[in-house]
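Posting this for the archive.
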Amino acid sequence: MKIALCTTTIHVPHALKLMRKCSDDIGIFVALDQKTPNLMELAKETRAQLLFGDRGEWKCSQTIGWNTLARRNIAFLEALKWGADVIYSWDNDNLPVDVDHFGKIEDIFVEPFSGLKGSHVRHSFFDAGALIYPWSRHRGIPFANAKLGHRYDIATDAKVGVAAGLILGDPDIDAVTRMELRPDNQIISEAGRAGIVVDPNTWTVFNSQNTAVIRELIPAWFMMPGVGRHDDIYASLIVQRVARERDYHVHFGKPFTYQQRNEHNLITDLRKEIDGMENVEKLALLLDSIILPGKSVIGDVKTIYMTLEHADWIPDNAIYAAYKWLEDCEAVL
């Protein structure tokens, strides 16, 4: 199985040295941005490919723009061209806790999953933050969501399309929760250690900091520019909607990382989260209402963005960039 690590960064990602120690076989693709420091020496040491993104090969590059996490889409495209079976999106402040990091990713996708299947009794969102202690609501989970509504059933031979690793240390939470609690999580529940899947008919969210997605679903995993800190959250919902048609599940569990979070201005983060806080449930409801042709992933994603054209809370440029992204996916898949 060919696994590609993809990232973009405005810091020197020294942790890439440890990621390379975890596997000599993975491809490493770093989409550079205007604020990215010089990484030539590190790239040589880790055999990472540095992607300058201004050479005109990818149609979506110019429409994505600069100084945005959405530059990571360029790394995704290069990884697809390289032949990746699985694309692993990683943030450089996430440190692997086990050198068999990529072996655990491969294990999740090689064999169907049998174990616990999570859902929500009131058809709300399953929150992976409940799998770590103390509970820390995952960024993107609606504030009205009640963790007490979680329930578990069994899954047998479930297909996994997304493997979202759980986070120790400073987990991925919204700015409000971080201001209030400032958690330092050191415990993952037994269910989290064993791994669980989420019922495809129950919404959840996952991020782009320690998450692997199979090649087939990558066209749905577009980080839209211009939507603040919910770019990966919106993408996670679109991936789930497309995956549902194909009976793929989201898996939460290993591999674990420890987030030694880069410095952030929490007020700035909060400003970038407000729109997403208001609209994440709207997007889920809208996606539920869409009838997908089911003939191809790219075709289904096009149908979704045609509907999103009429959502006044999605910027026009984000839709335009998504169409260009899909053209690039068609060219490389």
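Residues 224 and 318 are 5 Å apart (CA to CA). The chain has a mean pLDDT of 94.
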